[in-house]
Design a protein that fits this description.
The protein is an alpha/beta fold. It folds into two domains: 35-153 and 295-370, Rossmann fold; 155-285 and 384-399, 3-Layer(aba) Sandwich (Rossmann fold), CATH 3.40.50. The protein has helices at 6-23, 52-67, 87-100, 112-116, 119-125, 155-169, 183-196, 200-203, 218-226, 238-250, 266-273, 275-278, 299-311, 321-339, 345-352, and strands at 26-27, 35-42, 75-82, 105-107, 129-132, 148-150, 175-180, 204-210, 231-235, 256-259, 282-285, 342-343, 356-357, 368-369, 380-386, 391-393, 398-399. The strands form five sheets. A five-stranded parallel β-sheet has the order 3-2-4-5-6, sandwiched between helices. Helix 2 links the parallel strand 2 (35-42) and strand 3 (75-82). Helix 2 (52-67) crosses helix 14 and helix 10 (238-250) runs parallel beside helix 11. The chain is globular, with a radius of gyration of 23 Å. The protein starts with 5 loop residues before the first helix and ends with a strand.
Length: 401
């Protein structure tokens, strides 16, 4: 008999090793040897449909990754559903993604009110709710929502940066504010008032809101002008930012204008308003602008342009959400690589809460970094001014706590 020989010994060693090797691969629903299922909701229709360019761009990024063989040999199946920026619809679609589609995790679900409608349910289900498309402060609350983390820099922090700039450059400003009538607008206002400090009550001469169901914001802009504001701050989504910028121009009102980063897209807001009407507007940025000539020879921008031409031609290169989606996709792929063969929801969240990485299209000085006690990936921004053709950087990286 040869059972005690070298061949038998090798077979025995192999059999003993097999359970250990198999144990190295750990999966939750939505993951397998060949596939990773990721879900999102975004407004392909409705008043915030401009945001859909983000999901389209993420989809295109994953298409490139799949063509390259996937992540650790697994293809990404990205299920992107329309919620029309309507919280009840978001609830319906998120339940579908978790209970029917059985996605491994959710990615960049768009909107403040929409995410508010589902955040408790998602955390009860213990599904990673990653890089959501909202900068509302409530989404950095590891104690109550340990499965949720934002992508967008926090609205309150961004608004505080604007307020401090106004105090430094125009201390006698009469400020008129237009804000969305939900947590997005309220968060911006909280940060803006915090930045102005004790002078907030005297400097803010009028505060007007709109609902996303409103057809226009014309009357609000007229009211702000009547208050003799010489600084106009717009905390809105692109559709209403475009309306506000245009209306101010049409009634010959020319204050110093600020527009929130989430409403600043050239394709979604500036071009519809008219380049001349938008000239001089100040906003904040954390990602490279493809129209900025300083990035013309940047290797990362060269790669992005090639990707846009091949995988994402439906989205305008001037759209804020084209590089946005590319950065989100890049970050997710790096995260999945870090997870290796442990594709459990718990490990995904563990890795997501310990990020420290550069992204190809973030501005110099800005880095993706998280800790278990602070799940904000992006904490810094730089001020930009629209010169009639593109946004021009004019500050270093600024941060607010």
């Amino acid at each position: 008999m040869w059972s005690k020989g070298p061949i038998a010994g090798a077979l025995a060693a192999l059999l003993l090793a097999m359970p250990s090797a198999l144990a190295q691969k750990q999966y939750d629903r939505g993951a397998s040897d060949t596939e990773i299922k990721i879900g999102t909701t975004t407004p392909y229709s409705g008043p915030a449909s401009a945001y859909s360019a983000g999901a389209m761009s993420i989809t295109a990024y994953f298409a490139m990754i799949n063509d390259q063989g996937g992540v650790n040999g697994r293809k990404i199946k990205f299920i992107s559903l329309d919620d029309a920026y309507s919280p009840p619809k978001t609830v319906e679609q998120i339940r579908r993604l978790i209970e029917s589609e059985e996605v491994l995790f959710l990615l960049n679900t768009v909107g403040t009110a929409t995410n508010m409608a589902v955040v408790k349910y998602i955390n009860q289900k213990q599904v990673p709710h990653l890089f959501i498309g909202s900068g509302a402060t409530i989404f950095n609350d590891p104690e109550h929502y340990p499965w949720t983390m934002s992508w967008t820099p926090h609205y309150a922090s961004e608004a505080e940066i604007y307020a401090k700039y106004i105090l430094a450059t125009k201390p006698d400003a009469r400020i008129g504010i237009l804000a969305q009538n939900d947590d997005l607008g309220r968060d911006y206002l909280i940060g803006f008032r915090r930045g102005l400090g004790e002078r907030a009550s005297s400097m803010i001469v009028s505060y007007q809101t709109y609902n996303t169901s409103d057809p226009t914001v014309d009357s609000q802009v007229v009211t702000l002008r009547a208050a003799r504001a010489n600084v106009f701050v717009i905390f809105s989504v692109p559709k209403f930012a475009a309306q506000a910028i245009r209306k101010a121009y049409d009634i010959d009102w020319h204050p110093q204008e600020f527009v929130s980063s989430v409403g600043s897209s050239i394709a979604g807001a500036i071009r519809p308003a008219g380049f001349e009407a938008a000239k001089g507007i100040i906003s904040a940025a954390y990602q490279k602008d493809p129209a900025d000539p300083q990035w013309r020879d940047d290797p990362a921008m060269t790669a992005w342009n090639a990707w846009m031409d091949k995988y994402n031609p439906r989205v305008d290169k001037s759209d804020y959400y084209a590089p946005y989606g590319y950065n989100v996709g890049y970050a997710v792929v790096q995260l999945l690589k870090q997870c290796g063969d442990n594709l459990t929801r718990a490990n995904i969240m563990k890795q997501a809460s310990h990020l420290d990485m550069e992204l190809p299209l973030l501005l110099p000085g800005i880095r993706l970094k998280t800790t278990p006690s602070d799940l904000r990936p992006i904490k810094q921004m730089r001020l930009v001014r629209f010169d009639g053709q593109r946004y021009v950087l004019f500050s270093d990286a600024l941060a607010s706590e």
